[in-house]
Amino acid sequence: MHLRAPAIVLSARVHGETAVVARLLTEEAGVVAGYVAGGRGRGLRPVVIPGNIVEADLRSRSDSQLPFAKLELVESRGPWLNEPLAAAAIGWACALTATALPERQAYPRLWQALGGLLGAICHASSARDWAGALVDYEALLLRELGYGGERFRGGDLPEILAEMDRLAGPLDHYLLADRRGDVIAARSRLRDLLGRME
């Protein structure tokens, strides 16, 4: 396997003393995992933050082997990690995507939608401007994986929160069954933070 492509970092799990296993979303190959040597070090730790856009170079000797990944930072989400609402939204969107999508299956619409959503979270003037896009992304994920999910046509914050509440069941039942744990807790925290804006 050899893949060089722009990617969105979805998660980074500690592996050994200094490395991480990063799960990345690419347009061509979907979710791919890669071993990042030194990923816990000072130089690469800011690169493997979920939500970051990177240029990924993944190589392995066979398709069954975990590829080695070299990552170059293109766009950082680090500045928004100090903002609780933005950090919660980025964390939820990335965790949901990492958990729900199978590896090495392309979902170009999800790649584009997640990139747009992350950009909106970081650059919109308030959460009211991106919360509807987040709900629409959840519905798109359900549709792309074959579980329905109507497109959210927008609305004010109470309508967005009502739609979030409606989607909680299908997300939990179809996409996060047997894998809930911290993933659904991240959504609950985000829903609570958004509810405080009402």
Automatic annotation (TrEMBL):
GO biological process terms on file: DNA recombination; DNA repair
Domain DNA replication/recombination mediator RecO N-terminal: 1-75
Endpoints of the signal sequence: none
Superkingdom, taxonomy of origin: Bacteria
Pfam (any one): RecO_N
Name the record gives this protein: DNA recombination protein RecO
Species, as recorded: Croceibacterium soli
Source lineage: Bacteria, Pseudomonadati, Pseudomonadota, Alphaproteobacteria, Sphingomonadales
